[in-house]
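Submission sheet (multi-component)
Chains listed below:
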Amino acid sequence: MEEIIQAQNLTKKFGNFTAVNDVSFSVQKGEIFAFLGPNGAGKTTTIKMLTTLLKPSSGTIKLNGIDVIIHPEKARKTFGIVFQDPSLDDELTAMENMEFHAVLYKVPGHEIKTRIEKFLNFVQLWDRRNDLVKTFSGGMKRRLEIARGLLHKPEILFLDEPTQGLDPQTRNKIWEYLQDLNKETQITVFFTTHYMEEAEQVAQRIAIMDHGKIIETGTATKLMEQTQTKSLEEAFLKFTGTAIRDEEASGVDKLRIRARRWNR
Amino acid sequence: MSAIYILWKRELIRYFRSRARLVGSLGQPLLFLVALGFGLGPVFQKAGQGNYFQFLGPGVICMGILFTGVFAGIQVIWDRQFGFLKETLVAPISRFEIMFGKTLGGATVAFIQGIFVLALSMVVGFRVQNFLLIPLALIAMFLVALFFTALGITIASILEDMQGFQLIMNFIVQPTFFLSGALFPLSGVISFLSTIAYVDPLSYGVDAVRGSLTGVTHFGLMTDFTVLIIISATVLIIGSYLFSKVEA
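Outcome: structure written.
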């Protein structure tokens, strides 16, 4: 098996706060891999480093053999990403958002129309293609983002909390699409979540992350066996403890707050 | 190239789609033309300076470009707050292409706005003296648009959120307009004011547009265009550098 994501000794510090602390892992080609962790564990910071949006303080990342830190532009072609918060242009139509993406990713001109149709159909939004995105519901926006993330036929799809705030129907539907696609095209799916059932049902392997470190990696069954528990939730609580996490500002927000204090 | 084109196109789609913004941003120039043009016109005339509309027109055209341009640039902050910036930053294109595409788009919008104001000022009484020099005036208008849009993006790369927007408007944009030669002739003003006008980029823009359209200049067209080209290139370079440091 080919390792399509390789992260080694990944660390990200914001001032003296360490958001991600010496994390190493790898994901196989065609695998559906989940990062499971409580709020503030460092999941989003990790995904931002993997997708070139943040530079690691130290460590290396290879996507499809490409060093992300040395060749960010080249690496960006190999993955699609669906962010935690919407990243669509509300003032444009679904179609225009897709076209924008297609051109930025240099999808060949003659293929743009057919690909957009295919992927909008895939997420059942073709009929709404000429509507402004601001008229879409949260679930529709998320589906559109998934269609957009797939448009340039990436080898890896990153999803940061893809189903947060969505109803169970939409959540189901989204995973149905993605699992079908994974079977059909062998696309690698890397997602973060804090929903146990989602990780258990969808992911082939799970990494449990807390306090900026990966505590354990394995299949849901293995994690349960290891902790001698009956559910993933119990296993998760054994690994991460039962203390409630106060929802803390993310690493980047912390940096921003500090920058603001310095400026004023 | 295609990335720059699509970034440019996005700005134009958004501009023409929001009719309210399009019409609304003509209100201020119209107010200046009417209130100052008709209000101060007679005094200007009595002072032996001729028709004030001839003087004011180019100033207000540049005002329209200045505000629209800076605003278009600063919208990068909104892109960041609404998340769309991430989509651009994670795409396989260079930061320079992003900066350049956005600047061209915003500048085109500001330029179109300037043409609308030119038409508006002709309605209230401005007259073009030399039609042959109109292309030169249009180039000057576009350079002004380019400079201030790039400046807006540069500012947006440093600012975290819209909190600082008022600060920028009151301490950079408004003074840039009021202290340039847009509203009053620079010859004969106290040296304090003429020194400020001397370092105010808009002074050269207004002077270039005025010189091309009416034949009257303060610095000379050659100086105006040299300055405009140099400062536009400079701010594009500085802006690209600062923009390349932006993290999502």
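Remark: Chain B has a mean pLDDT of 92.
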